[in-house]
Specification:
Layout: H1 13-28, H2 38-45, H3 49-61, E1 65-68, E2 72-75, E3 82-84, E4 100-108, H4 111-117, E5 124-134, E6 137-147, H5 162-173, E7 180-189, H6 192-198, E8 205-215, E9 218-228, E10 234-236, E11 242-244
Antiparallel strand pairs: 1-2, 3-11, 4-5, 5-6, 6-9, 7-8, 8-9, 10-11
Helix pairs in contact: 1-3, 2-3
Length: 253
Amino acid sequence: MGTTQLESVPEPKYWHLKTVLSEALDSEFAVGEILPNERDLAARFGVARATLRQALEQLELEGRLQRRRGVGTTVAPPRMGVAVGSAQGTWPGAAGDAWQPADSELAPAPAEVARALGIDPDEPVHTVRRTRVSHGQPVAAELLYVPAGSVPDLTAIDAPAGAARARAVLRELGRLALEGQDRSVELGSARADDAKALDRLPGAPVLVVTTRFLAGGRTAALSMATYRADTCRLTFGDQGAVEIHHGPEQQAS
């Protein structure tokens, strides 16, 4: 058999521009400063606006830039650390959980969620919405799916609606004997509702952490947590906990 010689692939223009822009951010711009508009930047660096957008998107993904509604593109602040997610052996809503319940509704879950939970598509599911704020900035939004069968003692009288009902679902879920958890993480794009909750633009890069909570030999709950990819770097510790590191300078306890 013959061998195939891989040809050298030239560096894409946007990638070279990303490096040049990164150096300019370090030397010419302060944290929070608004960048010039795309037309001016493209003219300065002698590139097409499409090439510029690719470079800006890459810098946003790397956490160097932030696109803000009604403001424009700004230089991102240094990343700060904050621990999130529930530790192995604890349910969402347990003591020390920094997530804030916002709302809950009872309705059939999306088809893909029902399959992950191992339930019939028409089985009612409590969808608990929670948010996570760090240093005054929204960093994550979560949808926690809890089949009605996992919390059979929950009644409308206990908690009719809103955050009170979300807390009631979490309380009843915590009564189960947790057998284990498993997690996965993937890069995605912010949907309209996620973008609004995280103060991002639709389509902005996000990290989606999916967690299955196991009890009674089945999936008792499913969490889909969406994190801002521009400010979050996820690491998994020895116990499986998820941490967000915004930079080496600060670590929140």
